[in-house]
Amino acid sequence: MQEITVPDGPPEWQEFRRAREAELASPYGWLTLTRFDWLPESDATLPGLPGTWHSDGENAYVTAAAADGLERDGEPVDGTDEFTVAETGRAHWLTTADGQHIELLRRGGRLAIRARAETSEKRENFRGVPTYPHDPAWVIEGKFHPYPEGAMTEVGTHRPELRQRLKALGEVTFTAGGKPQKLLVTTIKAGASVEFHDPTNGEETPAWRQLKFDDPDENGRVILDFNRTIDMWFAFTDHCTCPRPSEGNTISVPVRAGEKKPL
């Protein structure tokens, strides 16, 4: 593993950066993914994996012999094993003979598996994510406008064949670069976030980025610290299902704050 140096900035931002880099560099993390497979409707083999696999829509199934080396919770799979997760969820299911972790995930109502190795060349060479210098001007006060409980929105994802329905929490309005801005606020697993485009996308940053923020106060006031903007997992691996920004979630001025394109 390469040594990662945290950029200069306020102590709380440096702590945020340390936690972020540690998450990315962890074993079996987002830099060690090896595959992604939608599970077929009928029993079939998956190249490079033992056994046969399928999903009936509700549950995932694998059929293997003990000699195939698949384990669940430390016990060999000898016969048919089933597992399931809720929409947007993911959970460790199996371990392969060579130590890879097979997780099950559900996106858009479909079940898929994804494999994580303990480490990878990408992880071993990781030196951190490039960031813009911390800029206090990008700590912006906004106003949160809630939607009715249960509101949903449908968005595209990193995978062209997949669209996802997310909880739509409301809209946040603020001023950036002297211009009014409005973004849809969603929740993917927990907490409020905005996925957004801006003019830095492509040359300086990935195709879109994400900012998470704390709950509003009793007056709807929120603090948007764009220095904490992050690259979503698609910037590091193709084996992901990251939601794209909802239609219109574009900041009209360049957001030169937070993470840049990974090296």
From TrEMBL:
The name this protein goes by in its record: DUF1684 domain-containing protein
InterPro entries per the UniProt record, alphabetical: DUF1684
PANTHER family, per database record: DUF1684 DOMAIN-CONTAINING PROTEIN
Short name of any one Pfam family annotated for the protein: DUF1684
